[in-house]
Amino acid sequence: MAPLWLSLKLASCVAALLLAIAMPIAYWLAFTAWRGKFLLEAVVALPLVLPPTVLGFYALLAMGPAGPLGKFWNAAFGHGLAFTFGGLVIASVFYSFPFAVQPLMGAFESIDGRLLSASAVLGASPWRTFRSVILPLSLPGIVTSVVLCFAHTLGEFGVVLMVGGSLPGVTRTASIAIYDQVQSLEYGQANRMALVLLCISFAVLVLVYAVNRHANPYAGRRLWTPWATK
Amino acid sequence: MDAVGHEIAASLLVRVHKARTLASRERARRQPFVLDVTLECAPGITILFGPSGAGKSTLLDCVAGLVRPDSGSVSIGNEVLFDSGAAVDIPVYRRGIGYVFQSLALFPHLTVEENIAYGIGNLPGAEKKQRIEEILSAFHITELRQRKPAEISGGEAQRVELARSLVTNPRVLLLDEPMTGLDDDLKAQIIADLRAWRAARNIPILYVTHSRSEARALGERVVTMQSGGIVSEGAQL
């Protein structure tokens, strides 16, 4: 089960890092009046449409001994970045980036601008408005962002394979281990790990939907819908 | 100083020039809009009357600091809040101005009581509690204190909104059509509450409306605006 623990560790690191990185970027994208913001939105969404192997390929080049990231890492820490846990974390951060930014951005954008004005008029500093109005009202988006990053990183395969290979205990995550086991016809072992991954993923998504169901009492009552549903 | 010991604000002096606002950029492209107003409001109610698009709300936004005028100045007594010449621009949250918006802006995740307490978070506990109790009873909303905004009616929300602005003891009060959509009885009650409150604290109140009956009921002084400028000023409409 070591690969599973490695996957969970990777997913936790990525989710935590992405929350810190994505929050200011999502804030800026949500509130800027800059006309060229659609360009940045496209860049943010890029990992959604790129094949993981493409992303992994470029990440590998950047982290390699000749790549900018690899050179920097070597100068700072005395070893390379490719085929290490740190390299996996960095590549996964890029891979899950849209899953972190988009729910946060949507949450920030959906906050009524008048509430922000009201908060300021009532004397709240920018930080207090962020803490007391923006954060609580975007809680569903924050939970969605963190959980999706976690689940998405847990299930990634192509990027990990390109950047990390399959070094036991270092970069051999659950999805890679399952692949290796199937390759060597150990179906029983593969099945066990696959089942655990399936359960974790399901539990995580149930959590997201449960939180969002409770946190949205402001949508207004629907007395009538075009087609009735039970 | 007033009866409760708070400083009484002096007159509000506004002199603003502002070409088209960001929010109405599309509209402005077709019909250039320029707000150009000089206005002095002594303590008491000044009605800003005029059709939609006359620039009444933009004027209030300039006073509150939500919209930055291209040039001009805003001051309360001797204190300058904005002066384009001297590069003074006090941020919104330090202006000490009460503002009730055209459409309601209560915080949906806070109860009525928490909404009202929002603007006086810095006060010591006992004084904060006393102020909240006073304002709750002055606007007849004591029984709503534990409810969320989604659980109260439009008229009740208006009262809460007024109470939330007034509890901070603002030096100037801006009211942007605060009675829109309320029936006449309710309007009369809220106006009575507002008058009673005003009697104790003498500050300039700028009250925007496009309803003649409201202007008549409240007006001590009526300023009529049209197309971004003041067209007439008088004791009554």
What is the topology?
The complex is a heterodimer of chains A (about 230) and B (about 240).
Chain A: H1 2-31, H2 37-49, H3 52-63, H4 68-77, H5 85-95, H6 97-109, H7 113-121, H8 126-137, H9 139-154, H10 158-164, H11 174-183, H12 187-214
Chain B: E1 12-19, H1 25-30, E2 34-41, E3 44-49, H2 56-64, E4 71-76, E5 79-83, E6 88-89, E7 97-100, H3 112-117, H4 125-138, H5 154-166, E8 172-176, H6 184-200, E9 204-209, H7 212-218, E10 221-226, E11 229-234
Parallel strand pairs in B: 3-9, 3-10, 7-8, 8-9
Antiparallel strand pairs in B: 1-2, 1-4, 4-5, 5-6, 10-11
What's the tally of helices of chain B? 7
> How would you describe the shape of chain B?
globular
- In helices, the fraction of residues of chain B equals 25-40%
* Order of helix and strand elements from N to C terminus of chain A: HHHHHHHHHHHH
Q: Main beta sheet of chain B, described?
A: 6 strands, mixed
Rg of chain B from C-alpha positions? Answer: 18 Å
Based on DSSP secondary structure assignment, what is the total number of beta strands of chain B? 11
Question: Helical content of chain A, roughly?
Answer: over 70%
Number of helices of chain A: 12
Reading the helices and strands of chain B in chain order gives EHEEHEEEEHHHEHEHEE
